């Protein structure tokens, strides 16, 4: 699999049945996703009161990250654009509810109800214009705007992303700020988690 | 899809003022047991749209929820167990969710609602005026 799948095709086409299965059965990928998800959940900084929360997993794919949320006792709603990936999540009987949807079209959720959101390796897909009518800026705006609205007061969103370059990272950050998010970037370098393949940003907003 | 998700889901088709709640058409419903956690329910309760939950539960074949509810009822385990069952144990496997304003159906297959908008339903596009009026005709059915 290419290091940069988002340069090959849009996610719903790249993650077809065969790619989706490959992704989910690679123990290296499973391990990485688990670590990234644990880290994201840690950065969500949910109150340590034993009360399960209602969380969003944006770009939930085959449910690898969602399993971390379940293991920590939370209920979650997962959104992904790839039917193939979601089919595998279903097969694996993940405990979250799954939605087939495009985050760049906006999250169709009521205001102020989500206790926290994570997104593992997904938001960078928004930066590529796949259809001629899709301007990345508009899609990022639709995504961050709708996410901001559906979060409860004080809730956070944590995005682990692999931006292609600094310009893309800045585009993502700017779009988030425009939507009303405050916060910053937590950089986790590869040497901390020896098996991570590349530099990644963890954005934590509240 | 279970009712805790349905209670959060809205139609975000362009031009829709209030896309909540989506009307449920159920063709296949499954029940799967989930561990009872009253803390989760008490925490979630203030965020619920109760009527949508009652109607949704009825659409999935469960009519035990009271028509109205308030937070004092959260003391009752019997009440909490009903809320638990409605929110977390009923799965809409096959059917559809219908936008209350446009009538547009979002199909549900294998428990997964397809919420993908068609291009002319997207809010993230900027369209010239002629396309806007074409789209309004398609959504509202009116000339």
Describe the protein's architecture and organization:
The complex is a heterodimer of chains A (206) and B (143). Chain A is of the alpha/beta class and 206 residues long. Chain A has one domain (5-205): Rossmann fold, CATH 3.40.50. Chain A has seven helices and seven strands; from the N terminus they run αααβαβαββαβαββ. Chain A has helices at residues 11-14, 17-25, 27-44, 64-71, 83-91, 136-150, 166-178; strands spanning 54-58, 75-80, 97-100, 114-120, 151-161, 183-188, 200-205. Chain A starts with 10 loop residues before the first helix and ends with a strand. By secondary structure, chain B is an alpha+beta fold. Chain B has five helices and four strands; from the N terminus they run H-E-H-H-H-E-E-E-H. A four-stranded antiparallel sheet of chain B has the order 1-2-3-4. In chain B, 33% of the residues are buried. The mean pLDDT of chain B is 91. Classes of the chains: A alpha/beta (206), B alpha+beta (143). Chain B: It comes from Salix koriyanagi. Chain B: One of its GO terms (molecular function) is protein heterodimerization activity. Chain B: InterPro entries: Trm112 (IPR039127), Trm112-like (IPR005651). Chain B: This is Multifunctional methyltransferase subunit TRM112-like protein.
């Amino acid at each position: 699999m290419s290091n940069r799948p988002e340069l090959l095709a849009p996610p719903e086409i790249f993650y077809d049945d065969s790619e989706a299965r490959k992704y989910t059965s690679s123990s290296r990928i499973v391990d990485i996703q688990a670590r990234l998800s644990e880290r994201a959940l840690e950065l969500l900084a949910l109150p340590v009161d034993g009360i399960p929360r209602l969380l969003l997993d944006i770009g939930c794919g085959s449910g690898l990250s969602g399993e971390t949320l379940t293991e920590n006792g939370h209920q979650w709603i997962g959104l992904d654009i790839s039917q193939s990936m979601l089919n595998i999540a279903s097969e694996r009987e993940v405990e979250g509810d799954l939605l087939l949807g495009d985050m760049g079209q906006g999250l169709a959720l009521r205001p102020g109800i989500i206790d926290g959101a994570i997104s593992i390796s997904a938001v960078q897909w928004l930066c590529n214009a796949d259809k001629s009518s899709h301007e990345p800026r508009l899609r990022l705006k639709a995504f961050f705007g709708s996410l901001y609205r559906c979060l409860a007061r004080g809730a956070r969103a944590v995005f682990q992303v692999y931006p292609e370059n600094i310009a893309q990272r800045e585009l993502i950050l700017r779009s988030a700020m425009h939507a009303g998010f405050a916060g910053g970037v937590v950089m986790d370098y590869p040497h901390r988690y020896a098996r991570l393949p590349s530099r990644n940003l963890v954005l934590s907003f509240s | 899809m279970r009712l805790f998700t349905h209670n959060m889901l809205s139609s975000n088709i362009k031009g829709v003022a209030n896309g909540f709640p989506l009307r449920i058409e159920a063709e296949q419903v499954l029940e799967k047991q989930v561990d009872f956690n009253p803390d989760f329910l008490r925490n979630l309760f203030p965020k619920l749209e109760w009527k949508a939950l009652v109607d949704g539960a009825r659409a999935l074949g469960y009519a035990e929820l009271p028509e109205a509810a308030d937070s004092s009822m959260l003391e009752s385990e019997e009440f909490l167990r009903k809320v638990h069952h409605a929110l977390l144990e009923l799965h809409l496997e096959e059917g559809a969710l219908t936008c209350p304003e446009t009538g547009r159906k979002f199909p549900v297959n294998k428990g997964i609602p397809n919420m993908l908008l068609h291009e002319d339903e997207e809010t993230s596009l900027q369209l010239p005026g002629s396309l806007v009026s074409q789209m309004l005709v398609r959504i509202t059915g009116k000339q």
